[in-house]
Amino acid sequence: MTEQKQERTEEIKAYLEAYCECMRAHAAELMDQPMPVAGEELFALYETTGNRLIYEEVYFTRRKMLAVFGCLSILEGKPEYLHKLEEILDGICEEECWALPAHVERDRDPDWRIRVDLFASETAQALAEIISLVGDRLPESLQEKVRANVFRRILEPFMNSKPPYNFWEGGDNNWNAVCCGSIGCAALSLMQEDPERLQPLLERLERSLRSYIGGFSDDGACMEGLSYFVYGMTYYTGFADMLYRYTEGKTDLMDQEKCRQIALFQQKCFFPSGRTLSFSDGDSRDKYKMGLTCFLAMHYAGMEIPPVSCAGGFDGDSCYRFMANLRDVLWTQQYLERAENGTLPRVEKTGEERSCDVLADAQWSICKGASGGGMAAKGGNNGEPHNHNDVGSFFYLVGDEMLLTDLGAGEYTKEYFHEGRYKILCNNSFGHNVPVIDGEGQREGGEYSSSRFEADGRGKTEISFAGAYGNDKVKELTRTLLYDCAAETLCVEDCLTAAKRTGTADASEPVPMSENLVTQFVPVAQGNTIRIEGEKYACLITVEELEGSIRWEQKKHMNHKGLEENVYRISWDVPADQAAGKRTCRFRVEKILK
Questions:
Q1: Using a CB cutoff of 8 Å and minimum separation of 24, what contacts does 422-430 make?
Q2: d(CA 207, CA 191)
Q3: How far apart are CA 91 and CA 528, in angstroms?
Q4: Exposed/middle/buried for 118, CB within 10 Å: 0-12, 13-18, 19+?
Q5: CB under 8 Å to 394, separation ≥6 — which residues?
Q6: What tens digit of pLDDT does each residue of 311-353 get?
Q7: Smallest Cα–Cα separation from 405: which of 316, 534, 528, 527?
Q8: How many CB atoms lie within 10 A of CB 312?
Q9: Which portions of the chain are predicted below pLDDT 70?
């Protein structure tokens, strides 16, 4: 083992010990605390106000207790952990509904209590695996109660239905992976002595999960963002691992080139500073799951483990998903054993270090800068999963500071996933670094898209995206971005050509266009320049030509945690070229000393 690899192994060992110590500390804190009550009054808040967070805080505190004492009972088995686990298992079995309020319709569905959604499925997986692994150390009556609840609430409703059970069965996003992966793991934990019922269920789940894998672009990109990749793949790999062991290696869901490409997607999303790609409902400060990453690294050559400082700890997931928590320990232990034994997949070094990744199918270009930051741009369409109206958008990082930002996910409320979605700043075009055409942003829907996306892998990206606006006055809109990874300068050129008037060879009058840039630092505009200062880094934006002056306004953004943040929209009007019907804007973004 090389010195560098040995150092990384020691870091992972230290991470693992800190992870387990965190669980022990939570156990000491929670040991004498009763489970908070997730009652009717809180459940009804979503229906009456649209607020999800208040009920979910209580719900996920209960799941945190399940994860803490479930994992520690399996890993260490102390009597005090097991005794507390009994109380928690019984309490969860007594819950009226395992699904979240946002996923049930009580006014329309008389059977709303039995709803197989993401979190009900996750709960079933956790309970089934716990009683399978803890076994006789729990009272038989409690084991039977847990088993009966898992069958009544999840396994029986799914098995007794005709495919598709619901919209997610056979779907191409992580609802499919989480629900089917959870159901599969629960079944493999509880039904191995009933192969006549288990086998057709497994075959049904495998068919469904093929569609999940098919939902990734051919280059492995998860269009929903990095955190959704982590979420779905955790449950896909958890089921794949259990199925592989159950079939004694005859069924290997990981033995696909597409799965290898999907695994390699994660490392492309991390900038050297630790910031992450935040397109769609992503998060620019995302973390990876150590267990999942170790599992993938044990399967695929070329799979890198990002810096350990970028790994989420036990508290990194506010939902405290037992599946991931337990595997953060077990799969990391397996990886360390294989690292010590020298049995990890070997990587052939090519000697070529790439500064830019191009995901052509997803239409993403990702460039890494010398300071640890970089630039990323996207094409795509406005009907993507967890869509934002952001075709042609980009962001600009210096070090670990996003000076021109992509806000990522906002607070998940009822409005966020219904008619009001595109009134929310982080979802509409005014919350992204894209032009505004004739006073309007882009439209939502898969037909509003990029018509051309080309990136050379060396910093040049070209996007044609007039079609994203649905404006028949516009013939063409092309954005060219040139990013210098060493100097960390970004040059942007936007060219708009108006459509010709019906019945004439002449172009129409130029269509009004303004630029729109977004930052979370207070900008300073002077003449044709904008200075943006972060806490450690700064950049200067120089605009070649202006019509009028540069202006900015402060907006409010509710982030994914429900916290209010300031956002600053910078804009200026783009003058018409001498050639009728055209507008061209060029601006340069450069890193400067504070």
A1: 422/389, 425/555, 425/556, 425/557, 425/567, 426/388, 426/557, 427/387, 427/388, 427/389, 428/388, 428/389, 429/389, 429/390, 429/516, 430/516, 430/569
A2: 19
A3: 63
A4: buried
A5: 375, 376, 377, 378, 404, 433, 481, 490, 492
A6: 999 999 999 999 999 999 999 999 999 999 999 998 765 555 6
A7: 534
A8: 17
A9: 1, 348-354, 502-508, 578-580
pLDDT at 565: 97
Query: Quick one: CA dihedral 107, 108, 111, 114, positive or negative?
Result: negative
Contact 366, 374 (CB under 8 A): yes
Q: Model confidence over 535-562: pLDDT tens digits?
A: 999 999 999 988 889 999 999 999 999 9
At 547 the pLDDT is: 80
Give the pLDDT score at 579. Answer: 64
Contact (CB, 8 A) for 122 and 110: no
Question: Which residues, 6+ apart, have CB-to-CB distance to 238 below 8 Å?
Answer: 125, 181, 185, 323, 327
Q: State the Cα–Cα distance between residues 248 and 242, nearest whole angstrom.
A: 10
Q: Which residue has the tokens 């799941």?
A: 63
What does 409-474 look like in DSSP terms, one character per residue? -B---TGGGSTTGGGSTTTSGGGSS--EETTB-PPPEEEEE-SEEEE-SSSEEEEE-GGGTT-TTE
The answer to whether the beta carbons of residues 226 and 174 sit under 8 Å apart is: no
Q: Which two tokens stand for residue 240?
A: 């794949």
Closest CA to 439 of 513, 385, 384: 513
Amino acid at 327: R
What does the H/E/C string look like for 222-275? Answer: CCCCHHHHHHHHHHHHHHHHHHHHHCCCCCCCCCCHHHHHHHHHHHHCECCCCC
Close Cβ partners of 313 (under 8 Å, ≥ 6 residues apart)? 15, 18, 19, 22
What pLDDT, on a 0 to 100 scale, did the predictor assign at position 348?
A: 64
Query: What is the distance in angstroms between the CA of the first residue and the CA of the last residue of the chain?
Result: 42
Backbone angles phi, psi at 434, to 5 degrees: -135, 155
pTM equals: 0.92
Check residue 452 and give its pLDDT. 98
Query: What is each CA distance from 399 to 274, 338, 540, in whole angstroms?
Result: 9, 34, 15
- Tell me the pLDDT tens digit for each residue of 466-510: 999 999 999 999 999 999 999 999 999 999 999 987 655 555 677
Whose tokens are 């973390």? That residue is 287
CA distance 8 to 373: 22
Q: At how many degrees (to 10) do helices 174-190 and 140-150 cross?
A: 140
Q: Which two tokens stand for residue 196?
A: 């006549």
- The sign of the dihedral angle between the CA atoms of 286, 363, 566, 592 is positive
